[in-house]
Amino acid sequence: MNPLRKYPKKFFWRVYFVALVISLILDLYWLHLHILHYHFPFQGIWEFFAIFGLFGCMGLILIAKGMGFFIAVDEKYYARRYKKYYESRE
Amino acid sequence: MIEWIHPGLVIFLGGFLIPFIKWRKVKLAYFLSLPIIGLIILILTSKGVFGSIPPWPHALYKWRVPFLQYTLILGRIDKLSMVFAYIYVIAAFCMNIYALNVKNHWEHVAAMIYVGSSLGAVFAGDFFTLFFCLEIMSWAPVFLLWFRGTKKAMGCGVRYILWHHFSGVCILAGILMHLHKTGSIAFVHMPWAWDWDHLGYNLMLLGFLINSATTPFHSWLSDTYSEATPSGSIYMTAYTTKTAIHCLIRTFSGVQLIMWMGAIQAVFALFLAVLENDGRRLCSYHIISQIGYMVAGVGIGTPMGINGAASHALCHIIYNALLYMGAGCALYVVGTAKFNELGGLYKYMPISFWLYMVGGFSISGFPLFNGFISKCMTIEASELIQRPYIYLLLEGATVGTFLHTGLKLPWNIWLQGRDEPPPKIRAKLKDSALNTPINMLIGMGILAFLCIFMGIYPKILYDMLPYPVEFVPFTTTRVFSITQMFIFTFMGFWLLRVLVKGYPTYTIDTDWLLRMPGMRFMRFCREPLINFGSLLDKGILKVTYSVISWVRSPILAMRMTPRAIGLGVLIVLILFSFFLMIYV
Q: A53 and A82, same structural domain?
């Protein structure tokens, strides 16, 4: 038996989509039955955690990428600065 | 009868013997046995062999040492010190297994000094002992950095010690001002207010916040941890920051300022993590983010908040070591942990992938993993005190944590949608699914087991916490909401996965504000200041030589005219008059 295996792509996607649909339905159903108990009113909005997860994740990536225009520099940034400041005389 | 055996001292002194053992196998067995001895001492202490431990916040005091007019307490044994001590020795054991194939035995010595002094700090009952242990703790990791041997690591070591000496000076100033005010060196809860009367306490708080890498003083952590040796960085993830959290719990619990700092830090570090290209630097930002939860829990200050902070520190040591080990495996096997150079390693390192994923799920707070228990405790504490913004920040940090450690890092190192790694990396791999050394997998396996075990059976964790736990983690609401949130976080990641790919960039952090002026200052010292100095030197030498030659030269002496002598006498008289005017 070959010990080298590829990662289980198909199995993962099947499980993922089933879980996604079930979570959407369960949220509406359980909220309707008042099974879910929250501390803040906004947590009880329909599909709040789905929206929070999706937009939180996308917002995080997009804002960080925007920050990247200012704070992402090349890997040798400090080394170049160091050379400029320290080794220019040597 | 023996009063008590200090586990920190056993590991600390025991570490020095490692290089003197000749036989390699005996040396490794001895290296592994040190944390086991520490664990045995702790178990005996828990069982009451050295006297029963009273309920929190009371403590059992051992090893009182007279020092000047004070009494040092080297062993304050209570529930809080025991929870930290237990996890320190268990983590040290797993880390030692991981570090078994390290050839440089001085690295083992530095690691054991680090672990021993950390235990000394958590058992300290007075500020002098605490400060002494913190100072040793600040030096040991410097060697773990320097043993990497690269120029960058050398620089990181210097920056690390500069940060920690600064924090040490702040803590010492705070201790001395407190001592001057109260005459006490007891390591207990401190008053805090934002005014000049509390300057000492503010300095002490600043020192602890720097040590715990709280934003905006967090940059030393991401800068240095990723540059240590593969096994050295594992030790560094656990001890310094958690000891600082322990100090914060003891001294400044309930301070609202740090509650906000912690919650903001939990999210802020994640923005920087998005841009990160190095696996270990990404994990460093996650240490900072997770520390945010602990600092927030300490700031909330309720029993639930303190329990949350202590349990999160405990769980965090386990899963973060596991994450670092996962990224360290890639570094060890293929020589890099940079995302833009990796991908497709799954086929060749599947076990380390799955073990890493246990850590990834734990840090994200997936149900049935230990992070779920500790993280929910802190989040619930924010809900109970009705702080919706703190809650949203902490919950938002959960989303970001899963995005990075659960998705971005494993995707970029092991998967990236391809079955084979890039040819340059492939050349370094054997045709086997077992490229990772066995000892590394065993170390990771034990930690992964602990992550799952504590997640399924949280009672073992609850029994260790300082306050009685009235918390039910597995409610329908909590399990469902967090699972749904992660399912949709994955969707967000998948839609924008091109943006979280590794790009060969470096992210500027808050240390830029210190490093750039520092470099400019050094350039000022090296160029204008030295030029001015040498100019001054030349001038003084010129004057001196002319005076010497004037005094020595008989020809010049012959040329002395009565006018020159008269001028000299006049100058002496004027100086003498000034002297009289001043002093008479």
A: yes
